[in-house]
Amino acid sequence: MSKIFSSSFKLAVFLLIIFGCTSSNQKVVVVYDGDTFELQSGEKVRLLGINSPEIGEPGADIAKDFLEKLVLGKEVRLEKDSMNRDKYERLLRYVYVCDLFVNAKLIGKGYAEVRFYPPNFRYKKDFENLEEIAYRNRKGLWAFAVFQPPEITKVAEKLFPPEENVISWQDADKYYGKTMTVEGLIVRSYNSGKACFLNFHSEWRKYFTAVIFASDFDKFPPDPENFYLNKKVRVMGLIKEYKGSPEIVIRSPSQIKIIK
Question: Which of 2.40.50.90, 3.90.190.20, 2.60.40.420, 3.90.245.10 is the CATH number of 7-143?
Answer without folding.
Answer: 2.40.50.90
